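During the reporting period the student researcher (J.K.) took over the structure-prediction task from the postdoctoral fellow and processed the backlog of single-chain submissions. One of the processed entries is reproduced below for the supervisory committee.
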Amino acid sequence: MSDRLDTEERRELPESVYGLPERREYPMPDAAHVRAAEAYFRYCPEDLKPELARNILRFAREYGVDVESPTVLSYAGE
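J.K. obtained the following structure tokens:
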């Protein structure tokens, strides 16, 4: 899977692979997308950052990605 998803690919993904499932934003079906979610974390609305940060870390552990962003780590409570 490339680091870009087209509309049809995004539509086919289950909500469980999104960093913000209720909004279907920040899909993380693989390691490349976990890294992308970390890179785009700053664009997330402030009130949703804790949820997204926790989900980034959850998917990072699943795919063996090292999260280096101190901002993501602090919002996740780590």
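The committee noted the following: DSSP finds four helices and two strands in the chain.
J.K. will present the remaining backlog at the next meeting.
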